[in-house]
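PROTEIN DESIGN WORKSHEET
SECTION A - STRUCTURE
LENGTH: 616
TOKENS:
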């Protein structure tokens, strides 16, 4: 939700900021804008649409300033218009501001400012904060000139309710940027004679690998020479400089048409990275370096409570199945957005686990804080190192799949399934799972990259199917047990990138309502495993066929499907049940991707969406 970039250095700020915005565009792409300090005034350019449009409209050669801020927007308050695009400038022209988040009490602040002569050009909450800072800046002539700008931001933020990641410039302070965060991520990049500020590392990785992760309630004051961090209460903070491990190539297309395609095909390597170094020497269990909970304490856990949103929530549903099946511990899975307001009774020996690729999803973060407030330990599975959730968790597991840029989650999702399967093994081996069953499970996990590679070989066949099915308006995705969440994931992938209506159901539930949708116009995608569920799933397929519904079957190799039952069959290799959800996901990722391409959708930046949802 919105991307923020700031730069102070010796280079032309506009080019660096625009490049950074392009890399952050997946966070929001309704509009984009920059403000550059230019000979004592702000040069502002902002526009609805993509960063590319802003670049074309910005006479970069004329904007020579070396301090600036830029923003790519996912609209919350106010429609998608040029006026609502960031940066906003205060009505007295003194302050320029970009913002990621929501100022909840903006209406009362606006009411306070209006009689004082401040005027507003937009419908945004951001412009209100911008004018509040201008008000405090003008009002505090007694504060030392050198810190007047910083103190006006600090003072204003004390009156703000809501969430923010902001970057602010003051016309009187040509080489200064003040920024602050509460609930929205901000990272300082410490380069060679330059400082950068961004919502995430993608925007700064081409210039520096040295970063400082800002915490909630901290203010960063950047000048041309150095930077300092203080709290909202004006206490000094000693910065910790971390090193980013991602490389610039990780966030480039490298010959692929879309990031989604690249990330789907990266999965064998990504999953290899997720597993690396995480098996015991005797080959019978998994091991994790960062759980921060002893085996003795883990044994006392009598319930797991899993919290997440979107695809990560689907991953939790699979993990629930595996932990209950292999470790025999009950698991509860909640949408993070619901858990934070549910106030449900919880047991004493419950361990919480949040799952989030970005580690910045506001509902997951808030649900985690709620669980901690209640006195529970919370572990986290995250991909983004140093993210808010990763830092606030008591321990956890990093996914190590590199940056995921396509808005539709692919490699991060399968890697969450893999971590879930490894956790189920680890917990199972602490309880009743035998050495030989553990060893067989480990062997299956180690085989995942190769199984995924085999599933990817179906790409040309799936592309053909996609071409034939792209014109349908409704789809059902049906699976049982651990393949039911994969059905949900398949439906989500299809709807988010192709805008085709799709629903996921447990295959047997279909008779309780969704079957009413079935006609020649509504195809069903079935997940068909061999083994005990095979006949049951085939019966459900027969019921669809009897009603003239088209069927695409994603079936394991050994499934001997009755002739003519499925209109299309996509084969996946036979595998251990713990890894089947991972392998079965690949065909539906490809199917959604190729359908969206066939329909000429903007695959990496689907309408109305943003990669990480940092507003409630
Ligand atoms: O970063 P997170 O894993 O917390 O994100 C959660 C969801 O917003 C995310 O999975 C979303 O549903 C994706 N667009 C799915 O493809």
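SECTION B - SEQUENCE
RESIDUE ASSIGNMENT:
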């Amino acid at each position: 939700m919105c991307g923020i970039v700031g730069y102070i250095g010796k280079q032309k700020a506009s080019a660096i900021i625009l490049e950074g915005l392009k890399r952050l565009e997946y966070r929001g792409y309704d509009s984009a804008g920059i403000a550059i300090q230019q000979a004592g005034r702000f040069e502002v350019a902002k526009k609805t649409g993509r960063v590319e449009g802003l670049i074309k409209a910005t006479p970069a050669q004329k904007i020579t300033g070396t301090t600036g801020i830029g923003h790519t927007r996912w609209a919350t308050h106010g429609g998608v218009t040029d006026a609502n695009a960031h940066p906003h400038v205060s009505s007295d022209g003194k302050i320029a501001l970009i913002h990621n988040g929501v100022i909840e009490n903006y209406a009362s602040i606006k009411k306070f400012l209006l009689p004082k002569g401040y005027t507003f050009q937009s419908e945004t909450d951001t412009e209100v904060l911008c004018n509040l800072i201008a008000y405090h800046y003008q009002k505090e002539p007694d504060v030392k000139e050198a810190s007047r700008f910083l103190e006006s931001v600090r003072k204003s933020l004390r009156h703000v309710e809501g969430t923010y990641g902001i970057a602010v410039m003051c016309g009187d302070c040509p080489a200064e940027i003040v920024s602050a965060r509460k609930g929205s991520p901000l990272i300082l990049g410490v380069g060679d004679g330059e400082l950068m500020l961004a919502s995430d590392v993608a925007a700064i990785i081409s210039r520096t690998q040295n970063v400082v992760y800002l915490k909630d309630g901290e203010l960063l004051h950047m000048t041309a020479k150095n930077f300092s961090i203080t709290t909202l209460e004006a206490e000094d903070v000693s910065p910790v400089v971390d090193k980013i491990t991602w490389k610039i190539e990780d966030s480039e297309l490298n010959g692929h048409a879309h990031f989604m395609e690249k990330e789907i095909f990266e999965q064998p390597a990504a999953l290899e990275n997720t597993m690396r170094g995480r098996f015991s020497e005797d080959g019978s269990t998994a091991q994790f370096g960062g759980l921060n909970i002893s085996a003795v304490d883990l044994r006392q856990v009598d319930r797991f409570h899993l919290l997440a949103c979107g695809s990560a929530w689907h991953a939790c549903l699979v993990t629930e199945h595996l932990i209950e099946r292999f470790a025999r511990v009950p698991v509860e899975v909640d949408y993070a957005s619901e858990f934070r307001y549910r106030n449900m009774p919880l047991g004493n020996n419950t361990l919480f686990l949040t799952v989030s690729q970005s580690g910045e999803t506001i509902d997951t973060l808030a649900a985690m804080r709620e669980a901690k407030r209640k006195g529970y330990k919370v572990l986290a599975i995250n991909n983004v190192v140093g993210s808010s959730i990763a830092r606030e968790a008591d321990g956890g597991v990093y996914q190590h799949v590199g940056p995921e840029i396509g808005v539709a989650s692919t490699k991060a999702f399968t890697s969450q399934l893999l971590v879930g399967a490894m956790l189920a093994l680890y917990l199972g081996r602490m309880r009743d799972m035998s050495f030989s069953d553990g060893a067989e499970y480990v062997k299956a996990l180690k085989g995942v990259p190769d199984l995924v590679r085999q599933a990817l070989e179906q790409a040309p066949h799936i592309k053909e199917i996609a071409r034939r099915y792209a014109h349908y308006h409704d789809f059902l995705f049906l699976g049982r047990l651990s393949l039911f969440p994969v059905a949900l994931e398949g439906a989500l992938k299809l709807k988010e990138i192709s805008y085709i209506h799709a629903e996921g159901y447990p295959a047997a539930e279909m008779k309780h309502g969704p079957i009413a949708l079935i006609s020649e116009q509504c195809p069903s995608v079935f997940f068909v495993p061999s083994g005990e569920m095979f006949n049951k799933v085939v019966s459900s397929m027969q019921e669809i066929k009897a009603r003239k519904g088209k069927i695409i079957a994603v079936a394991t190799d050994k499934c001997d499907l009755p002739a003519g039952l499925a209109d299309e069959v996509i084969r996946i290799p036979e595998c251990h049940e713990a890894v089947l959800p991972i392998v079965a996901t690949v065909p539906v990722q490809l199917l959604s991707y190729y359908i969206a391409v066939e329909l000429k959708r903007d695959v990496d930046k689907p309408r109305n969406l943003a990669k990480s949802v940092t507003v409630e």
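SECTION C - NOTES
The pocket of 5-amino-5-deoxy-1-O-phosphono-D-mannitol is lined by residues 309-312, 356-358, 361, 364, 407-409, 492, 496, 612-613 (CB under 6 Å).
Residues 248-446 form a domain with the Rossmann fold fold (CATH 3.40.50.10490).
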